[in-house]
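We keep the chain:
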Amino acid sequence: MTDIFREIDEDLRRDRYSKLFRRLTPAIVAVVVLIVAGVGGWQTWRWFEQQSAEQAGGRFEEALQAAREGRGAEAEEALKAIAADSPAGYRLLARFRLAGIEGSRDAAAGAAAFTAIANDNSVDATWRDLAKLRATLLQIGTLSPDEVQAALQPLAAPGQPWRFSALETLGVVALDAGRFEDAGRWFDQIVTDPSAPAGLRRRAQEFYLALVAGGPSD
């Protein structure tokens, strides 16, 4: 009798997890996109701040201030000028910013702008990989799970700078597609890697893997 009640309880829990995930999938994907964009943007800014000329930095900060104050057209023009004639670091940072602005208006156009950066061999491999990640995130609604995996699996390898963002994205996309075994494999790599950010490791263990354990429901 105890076994019967345990099975009923597990079935109910699995059904709750599956219904919860179906309801929350759009929000989860949106959060992943924001996390990757925020982390990538902050790390990129810190690196360029150390590498580029003070004058270009002032121009870039003015462009950001214009954007914050709602002067979008002015900000874009300033960023285009920086992308055209500033030191290499700030040229690239302006390109990232412009691609992000474009992506907020038109996902396909933003993805194309990030892809152009990813394919630019004059750009350091770290930032090409970030551009590839951002381009893929903008296309999640149109790419198949296999296409997302082909794009992001190389970025999820041990030692890659954007490994954990790629792993989280791969896991969420696999969950959304009902590929629970694949999702568990991606999230397990986060949980078992001591270098993973503590917040992400906790999120993977307490939320994502709970959804994986819930499995599909009728």
Remarks:
- Confidence is low (pLDDT under 50) at residues 1-13.
- The radius of gyration is 20 Å.
- Residues 2-51 form the longest helix (50 residues).
- The chain is about 80% helix and 0% strand.
